[in-house]
Amino acid sequence: RMRMQQVFVNLLTNAMRYTPPPGRIWVSATLEGSDAIVRVTDEGEGISAERLDTLFEMFTLPRLKGSKLGLGLGLALVKQITELHGGSVQARSEGLGAGSQFIVRFPARGNS
31-59: per-residue pLDDT in tens? Predict the structure, then answer.
């Protein structure tokens, strides 16, 4: 539980970091078959198409004016933790200025 919490804290922190006021952030969760799908969508800075290819690699940082950058580890950890739980993570963006969406998919477990 603590590791999955870390996944969503990292995604929400990034969404807040790159979404200037009065931008909005949405979080939604659904069940699709035996998978849980969580989407974090923002109205932030967006991501260029060429950056989407390396987004989940360690130490890759965007070069955005005025941003409070971290170490470039957060999304790499999101990917690693999600995959260790049998899931996947995907990023989507229509480009700079168009916001972004992160989709985390992992197996849902029953309460048995």
Answer: 999 999 999 999 999 999 888 888 898 86
